[in-house]
């Protein structure tokens, strides 16, 4: 798969550029990913959420959206100082757009 910017699948960005995405406190942000055109393998991956103020890792967001079969979205290695809300995703088909909530405890 690939990451892309601004909801434009032709504007591919590197994983390093994903690492540079900052989401201000009390705001929203977008991270886009999809499979590659003509490659019937779907997409899967992960990225870390990090609190930029104290450099604490909040969690790792994991997903899999295979070409066929079940999809999932999860948070792992969640820091006890945060609450992470992961919505349910469709078991079959693409993960789609989801809202992940993060709350500092």
TrEMBL record:
GO BP terms in the entry: symbiont-mediated hemolysis of host erythrocyte
Pfam (any one): Aegerolysin
Highest taxon listed in the record's lineage: Eukaryota
Family stated for the protein in its record: Belongs to the aegerolysin family.
Descriptive protein name: Asp-hemolysin
Organism of this sequence: Emergomyces pasteurianus Ep9510
Biological classification of the source: Eukaryota, Fungi, Dikarya, Ascomycota, Pezizomycotina
